[in-house]
Write a sequence for this structure.
């Protein structure tokens, strides 16, 4: 284990890739799915079980953590890894996306974004420098630059202005990161430009000039639809360097992920498996089911009898149905666990398929099993 | 493992006892604390972790289970053990106590008690025979007779009438149990009589004439206070046969349990560790603390650094404080686990002390550590 951060590309199958991101806190097998641990906990999960599903890395949300318990408090307690009892890699976002979606009275300027906390109304300012400072206080292994993530549809001129602001913030983020970070930590730049090919290219060029150890694709999965998202990836990822990891932020459902891996993406995060698990939706090899449906009240079969995951294997659908109807904690606990296992099994299966040069067959099988048409 | 149910008394220290209740589903070390799994789940706990704390047996509530998912459904799914993934002994109550405290429009007659469900208003009738039928459908290893549990204070005449009704129901319960039960299952009679010595004696005599493999002490922990509860135990347990287990229903806080063990009780159940855990109260060797208190927001120490329990050992008080403030599932999950570990550690320590003939010293140490005066 060295202090270096680097990506080891191990195999390619058409545009799809598999490899390992090496960090001082451990390796991250790609394609990787990162469970979301918003407020320092993957909701309803014990860290040991998150790991047992096969997760190499979890995501923390800068916006939530800066407000409660605060980055300074987490730092005084030894950092986010120790705080949440997760000794492996952690990626944090910049906080920008959630400021824009969750906070009140937000105001965007060249300097950054000022806002009021959705928790207690207190005033805060998030700049590229402050975001990096917070992420370094948390001790994040993979940090994100502050960016602006505009909604789509957006006019070309507005998309250009927004992309250029994000590019200037990328440079300021890099400067702050160089000053504050520790060896082995990494900062990713974020490609913006909405669904305009020229802007995505220009955004990428400007980021590569600044030079980052990894690049995120931002501004997608904001309502544009799966086909449009795939179209943007198709004219973006081929221009990204092969040697750096590529992270598609906030994506997605299983078919989104499979399709994005086919288009060259390496890293993903999404609340889908955890949030839907808390609400009674279970992902299965044949697609999602709602366990609260009356049809499961007498079903003696588990979600996946062949699984090694206790949540998938050791409890009948009838029991899970009962737990949700009775409003018991154990329902969300088991379904979250099951869904995370489903996602990690999916990632592992894709890594194997890419290594074996049979990812095309994998996609065909996935479409047939789930009934998904666009992958 | 035979099909027999029996109690092996291993050691006595004054009135305190230690031993093992042997059942076909496994042994129950006494004094025993039974975590409450009301609706087929010990709230916010995985069964493996319930077991890991040292629990040999859990309790299920007939009232809740008969209404949802229904005893017939549980039976069709293979019984409560399989349903909730707990292969060890299960004790069920008769349902009577919760009918009286939770249901609507209840009416008590010689035949039984009719009531409306608190969930959907549906009408039900619970008789001694129906209670046994339900408990046999669930597959309970230790079943309880239907009884009436009057509030205190109660006049002597009313207490006598109530106790006599419970005694008649005991006989009907036994007859139904003989007909419906399987080898190795046990039915306990319940001693009533409020806080009247003559009635408790008479209740016990009538039950011993019917003959049960174990006896519960009911009608306590209903607001009479710890001193009064101990006074009732002091004139009740000395008349109970040494060879049968004694179960004090619905008790209690740690000091209640320690004091009741000193007065000859072998088995306990209570929602205290689980319910208080969900609300942020943690039991510690120095007594209970409220983890939501601001004083813990920066406390880097775990609840018990010496514990083998991950919930007690691997998370700082500051983190637990954060989880409760943020309304995260993991807060109740960890504090419930910690509290159950505390309770099971307490029971194990009492068993050791009784075996070693130093239970008096154990009580003195417990009082000194917790500041409890009445034990």
């Amino acid at each position: 284990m060295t202090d270096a951060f680097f990506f080891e590309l191990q195999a390619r199958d058409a545009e799809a890739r598999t490899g390992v991101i090496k960090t001082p806190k451990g390796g991250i097998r790609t394609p990787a799915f990162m469970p979301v641990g918003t407020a320092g906990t993957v909701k309803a999960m014990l860290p040991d079980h998150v790991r047992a599903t096969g997760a190499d890395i979890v995501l923390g949300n800068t916006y939530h953590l800066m407000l409660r318990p605060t980055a300074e408090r987490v730092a005084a307690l030894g950092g986010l890894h120790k705080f949440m009892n997760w000794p492996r890699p952690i990626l944090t976002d910049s906080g920008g996306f959630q400021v824009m979606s969750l906070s009140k009275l937000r105001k965007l300027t060249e300097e950054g974004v000022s806002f009021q906390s959705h928790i207690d109304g207190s005033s805060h300012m998030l700049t590229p420098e402050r975001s990096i400072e917070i992420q370094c206080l948390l001790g994040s292994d993979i940090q994100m630059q502050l960016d602006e993530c505009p909604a789509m549809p957006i006019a070309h001129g507005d998309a250009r202005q927004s992309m250029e602001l994000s590019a200037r913030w990328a440079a300021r983020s890099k400067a702050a990161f160089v000053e504050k970070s520790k060896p082995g930590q990494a900062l990713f730049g974020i490609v913006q430009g909405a669904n305009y090919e020229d802007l995505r290219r220009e955004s990428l060029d400007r980021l590569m000039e600044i030079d980052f150890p990894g690049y995120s694709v931002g501004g997608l999965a904001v309502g544009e639809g799966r086909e449009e998202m795939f179209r943007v990836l198709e004219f973006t990822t081929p221009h990204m360097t092969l040697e750096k990891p590529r992270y598609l932020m906030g994506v997605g459902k299983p078919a989104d992920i499979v399709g994005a891996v086919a288009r060259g993406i390496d890293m993903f995060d999404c609340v889908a498996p955890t949030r839907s698990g808390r609400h009674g939706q279970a992902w299965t090899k044949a697609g999602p089911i709602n366990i609260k449906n009356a049809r499961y009240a007498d079903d003696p079969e588990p979600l996946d009898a062949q699984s090694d995951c206790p949540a998938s294997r050791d409890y009948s659908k009838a029991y899970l149905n009962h737990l949700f109807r009775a409003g018991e904690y154990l329902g969300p606990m088991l379904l979250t666990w099951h869904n995370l296992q489903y996602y990690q099994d999916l990632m592992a299966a894709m890594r194997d398929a890419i290594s074996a040069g049979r990812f095309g067959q994998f996609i065909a099988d996935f479409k047939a099993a789930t009934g998904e048409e666009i992958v």
In short: The interface with chain A takes residues 39-41, 43-46, 48, 64, 68-69, 73, 76-78, 83-85, 297-298, 300, 310, 314-316, 318-319, 321-323, 325-326, 328-330, 332-333 of chain B (CB under 8 Å).
